[in-house]
Design goal:
three-stranded antiparallel beta sheet, acetylornithine deacetylase activity, Aminopeptidase, succinyl-diaminopimelate desuccinylase activity, 4 helices, alpha+beta, 245 residues
Length: 245
């Protein structure tokens, strides 16, 4: 999204713009109105890494339209949602210039990363000046087959940790004298990936391993490592509602 898009929309929709930057993170808070309830649209401008750029059919940071679809980093998650926020606000204000309550946008550039200086810091600032959000709509992509066919109304968070498995270092010529830590945790990894570690609830699938990084310690080509470490993350899955319409 061009840098001038939100300020221009701010002026057009008479939204008050407040820039709240912390470190390298850029945040903006836009609001129209001074009374409650405050309906806030929340989103982010940062994106996940591109991976190998040469694998893309078009430059990842140059939007390209092909067969009625928009391609580029952020096309789904979630710069297009911000564009929808802005357009919706413009149309709503044009049709209802004297609307009740307030409309707000909270946009951050720190969501895909550590998420330390983004929404959290902005909310702290709002709390300090007693400016509270009554309703918040997060424009993350959730549609499966068509626009609006799924609404996620909650998130249970995630469970992350570092797991260290100890074995017994030994030469590969004598594997029976060593204990390979990979053999110890590999069966558990299979179970986790199959979702068997999570408890299935009535309308929720079992929690499943989503992020895994493995590192051998004391690696030598002719030697079994005596220790292995891995980072794990289990997203505690959303409560979802699929529209039957």
């Amino acid at each position: 999204m061009p840098k001038t898009a939100l300020p221009n929309a701010c002026t057009k929709s008479v939204l008050r713009l407040k820039e709240l930057h912390f470190g390298d993170t850029k945040n903006i808070w836009l609001r129209r109105g001074t009374k409650a309830p405050v309906v806030c649209f929340a989103g982010h401008t940062d994106v996940v890494p591109t991976g190998p750029v040469e694998k893309w059919d078009s430059p990842p940071f140059e939007p390209a339209e092909r067969d009625g679809r928009l391609y580029g980093r952020g096309a789904a998650d979630m710069k297009t949602s911000i564009a929808c926020f802005v357009t919706a606000c413009e149309r709503f204000v044009a049709e209802h210039p004297d609307h009740q309550g307030s409309i707000a946008l909270l946009i951050t550039s720190d969501e895909e990363g550590d998420a330390l200086d983004g929404t959290t810091k902005v909310v702290d600032v709002l709390k300090a000046r007693d400016e509270l959000i009554d309703y918040c709509i997060v424009g993350e992509p959730t549609a499966v087959d068509k626009l609006g066919d799924m609404i996620k109304n909650g998130r249970r968070g995630s469970l992350s940790g570092n797991l260290t498995v100890k074995g017994k270092q030994g030469h590969i010529a004598y594997p029976h004298l060593a204990i390979n830590p990979v053999h110890t945790f590999a069966p558990g990894l299979v179970r986790a990936d199959a979702g068997s570690l999570g408890r299935r609830q009535q309308i929720l699938p079992a929690d499943q391993l989503s992020n895994f990084q493995y590192q051998r310690r004391y690696r030598r080509d002719q030697c079994h490592s005596g220790r292995a470490e891995r980072q794990i993350q289990f997203p505690l899955l959303h409560r979802v509602h699929r529209s039957r319409g």
